[in-house]
Amino acid sequence: MPDFPTAEFERRLANLHAGMAEEGLQALLLTTEAEIRWLTGFRTLFWQSPARPWFLVVPAEAAPIAIIPSIGAELMAQTWVQDIRSWSAPHPDDDGVSLLVEALAPFKRIGLPMGREASLRMPLSDFQRLQTGLPDSRFVCASTLLNGLRQVKSPLEIEAIEAMCRIAGRAFDRAPDLFSQGQSLEQAFRAFKIALLEEGAEEVPYLVGGAGQGGYGDVISPPGDTPLRAGDVLMLDTGATRRGYFCDFDRNFAISRADERAKAGYRCLWNATEAGLAAAKPGAAMADLFTAMNAVIEAEFPSPPGQAGSVGRMGHGLGMQLTETPSIVAWDTTPLVAGMVITLEPSLTMAPGCMMVHEENLVITDAGCRLLTPRAAPKLPIL
Amino acid sequence: MPDFPTAEFERRLANLHAGMAEEGLQALLLTTEAEIRWLTGFRTLFWQSPARPWFLVVPAEAAPIAIIPSIGAELMAQTWVQDIRSWSAPHPDDDGVSLLVEALAPFKRIGLPMGREASLRMPLSDFQRLQTGLPDSRFVCASTLLNGLRQVKSPLEIEAIEAMCRIAGRAFDRAPDLFSQGQSLEQAFRAFKIALLEEGAEEVPYLVGGAGQGGYGDVISPPGDTPLRAGDVLMLDTGATRRGYFCDFDRNFAISRADERAKAGYRCLWNATEAGLAAAKPGAAMADLFTAMNAVIEAEFPSPPGQAGSVGRMGHGLGMQLTETPSIVAWDTTPLVAGMVITLEPSLTMAPGCMMVHEENLVITDAGCRLLTPRAAPKLPIL
Predict the structure, then answer these.
(1) What is the ipTM of this complex?
(2) Which end of chain B is more exposed for a tag (fewer CB within 10 A), N or C?
(3) Which residue of A has its CA nearest to B313?
(4) Of B103, B119, B151, which marks where a domain is finished?
(5) Is the pTM of this model over 0.90?
(6) Which residues 36-65 on chain B approach chain A with CB closer than 8 angstroms?
(7) Which residues of A174-186 are buried (b: 16+ CB within 10 A; e: fewer)?
(8) Which residues of B are less than 8 Å from A349 in CB distance?
(9) Is residue B226 within 8 angstroms of chain A, CB to CB?
């Protein structure tokens, strides 16, 4: 702690203050891990416990105020935040609410992330008490502002994500030693998690995948104990972290042999990713990436009407969270700008219950884009 | 999937329906992972992504209705839930809200967890749209009901927690091979995470700890690169999971040698835990456990005025979350009943910036309590 120099946080705050001025926000209230860490550098696994709320108040023209349980005061004092107000939590009847009322009372128009991808990490009844305690203040949605700022990564953030991508790339390189016929998916997942840690990952909050003859049925289930068979396609999709920044990409492997349809599906997704990479440049929109990748897929593996992109989208933002805004969907017109880190995640369905998905991570540059993940092999690797 | 037989979920629902009847709730709306998994068995790491909300509606006299993104419909269909309504998420302007309005419209008084430890895992603006769409309905807090039911574990849940405790116990048994002088805390954490996975843990969402001469400064920081020195006390506190159920306990080790104060602090916390174990029985209150443990600590390591229990509490509920209600604090009068799984987590401060903490997990039985963790050694182990 902290993971970045103070200048990094000063720049983030300056950008936020500029955005708040444009939107006429006199203050901001944050309750969630990624937003608070983005502005403070406060990084701890303690968010796992729902027992205590954590707050950050950002006045329009001043430094952030941390309003946090006393158990976190010492760690917060190691960040660049100077104004730390704490209470002994959990508290019988006032878990930070009166401290919040005091800090927010001067402000009439207060931003709060209330929109896309936001959640309220405090009891709703406490939020209602806060509103009652601030009869002259109004909370307005700050999601567009915050999502927009967090979408564009600094060079240090890009470095952190790329470091994690390289680590996971080295773990995937060990696939021939890690995965084998007869092994259960559960064993394969365990072996891969250990490999990720050995290669330098600090946390592995997310590892999902699937395996099945020539493709897999879904991509969000926990692993089971069915042994891998010859002809299975095994996919592992990992969101691991280093210094609190995620990679999020997958790799597919055939066990012992691959049928022609699986090879064709793999090749199609590899080509779709190429089309996405070619389209990824400043000025293009997220929807353009969807269109580019979807055209390649529909030409070869047409979806049933209305079901193009069977996982719902074909990529998303990436950073302190496994998935961030924006989304690669037909309706997301967010323009790409240099510094945005996103995943390309095309998928296709070869038959009912038999799908395949590819994923790579990239950063938008002035000239176009640059892969942060080592590119997947152009042909389905056979283990 | 599922982790438990249908009868387990039927019992949970019956208990919930009984509680809803008592409180006059016509339906319940759930948005968070633990609550939805508790009723459905739906277990996935996909909750890591904030892009999509997930909902469960529980009518007062009927089976639960899952209102979820289509990417999860296949997995949900493997649970006992029959009524699954899905939409393609993320959606440009209706992420489940109109489906929620339709499902909740018949009900006037709707329970929602809004109190202690609750959060709202949907955009607040969508919740406001939901309220607008249900002009004749009122949301009331269902936290006391839900927390109370979830606090008492079934035999199968206790088995799951105990299995995870045994796994972590085996990993801690390997301490002499895992931790050594000269190693950084970061290396020690990595080695321990790998050991947890090797011994059978499926996820390691939480590993924190500390190290320092004769004690440590705080217990929520990420590990650093300072090498362990002779005379350091090393503490690791892990919340690892198997089948979605947590253990949450720690162990302390001295590196090469231990000073007398560290030995005395360790012994005092071990004795405090004994006092907690003796007091843990049906009819006692959580506050009684605090009093029993605190008396042992204050006799030997008195706190500065008003700072007894320097981490804020001395234990908590345990189950599908790392920490659950209730809390072992002076003001929590929740009565212990057979089946409750809790942690005892006494801590003390030996000098400014030099603290120690112990933690064990237990289940309340008809006769008293039973440890789920292998009991820590009575004397500070020296590696």
Answers:
(1) 0.96
(2) N
(3) A90
(4) B151
(5) yes
(6) 43-46, 48-52
(7) ebeebbbeebebe
(8) none
(9) no
Cβ contact (<8 Å) for A44 and B123?
A: no
Q: Is the pLDDT of residue A307 over 80?
A: no
Residues A41, A78: one domain?
A: yes
Q: What domain count does chain A have?
A: 2
* Spatial separation of the C-alpha atoms in residues B353 and B357, rounded to whole Å: 13
> Do B323 and B195 lie in a common domain?
yes
Percentage of chain B surpassing pLDDT 90? 95
| Mean pLDDT score of chain B | 96
- Whole domain around residue B72: which residue ranges? 6-151
One domain, residues B144 and B24 = yes
Q: In chain A, positions 240-299, which contact chain B (CB-CB < 8 Å)?
A: none
My answer on whether B231 and B316 are in the same domain is yes
Instruction: Check CB contact of A225 with chain B, cutoff 8 Å.
Output: no
Q: What is the mean pLDDT of residues A22-47?
A: 97
Q: Is A237 contained in some domain?
A: yes
- Same domain for A170 and A145, yes or no, is no
Sheet of B55-59, strand order: B83-87, B65-69, B55-59, B27-30, B109-112, B138-141
Residue B348 resides in a domain:
yes
Q: Which residues pair with B340 in a beta bridge?
A: B152
Within-domain flag for A382: no
- Residue in chain A closest to B310 (alpha carbons) equals A71
Q: Do A49 and B1 touch (CB under 8 A)?
A: no
Q: Is residue B73 in some structural domain?
A: yes
Kindly identify which residue of chain B lies nearest to residue A125, measuring between CA atoms: B114
A286 CA: distance to closest CA in chain B (Å) = 13
Mean per-residue pLDDT, A242-249: 98
- Both B146 and B160 in a single domain? no
What CATH number should be reported for the domain holding residue B37?
3.40.350.10
Whether residue B336 sits in one domain with residue B204:
yes
8 Å CB contact between A109 and A24: yes
Closest by alpha carbon to B332, among A92, A96, A53?
A92
Q: Tell me which H or E stretch contains A192.
A: helix A185-199
CA distance A251 to A178: 13
Q: Are residues B298 and B343 in the same domain?
A: yes
Mean pLDDT value of segment B18-39? 98
